[in-house]
Write a structure and sequence with these properties.
By secondary structure, the chain is of the alpha+beta class. It has five helices and seven strands; from the N terminus they run ββαβααββαβαβ. The strands form two sheets. Strands 3-6-4-5 form a four-stranded mixed beta sheet. A three-stranded antiparallel beta sheet has the order 1-2-7. Helix 1 (19-28) packs across helix 5 and helix 2 (38-45) packs across helix 4. The chain is globular and about 35 Å long. The chain starts with 8 loop residues before the first strand and ends with a strand.
Length: 133
């Protein structure tokens, strides 16, 4: 019997999201694909600071996406037609969106000057379901 593979996880500051669980949820509860603006995510996640040749930084920010496993080479081989996954969290009645799957695709879209990428947006309840506590 082959060993079980580790679930794909995404870290944003102190929060960790189970991407495998998110993908399963999206398969079980299909929804429309929306277009998300690349420039907004590039600015929010400082993707313009990642240079071609960037490979696996050994840090992640206290507040922000974990870029410790970032690989520019891998990014340039990603499928830009595969929707990214955006989580929705709520703070003091205000909603906040987090890119939890697709950092490499967003980087490639920036390099290739794409204006939007396809995305799935999780609800607050779905985000809570895929968040690792």
């Amino acid at each position: 019997m082959a060993p079980a593979s580790r679930p794909q996880m995404s870290r944003y500051g102190k929060w960790v999201f189970n991407i495998d669980r998110a993908q399963n949820l999206l398969e079980e509860q299909p929804r429309a694909v929306v277009q998300t603006p690349v420039a907004d995510w590039v600015a929010r996640y400082h993707l313009h600071l990642l240079k071609p040749g960037s490979e696996g930084k050994t840090w992640y920010p206290i507040f922000g996406p974990d870029q410790s496993h970032f690989s520019a080479e891998h990014a340039m081989q990603t499928d830009l037609d595969e929707p990214v996954i955006i989580a929705t969290m709520e703070f003091d009645g205000e909603r906040a969106l987090l890119l939890i799957d697709g950092l490499h695709r967003m980087y490639r879209a920036m390099i290739e000057d794409r204006s939007t990428l396809p995305a799935f947006i999780l609800t607050v309840a779905e985000t809570t379901e895929v968040r690792v506590h």
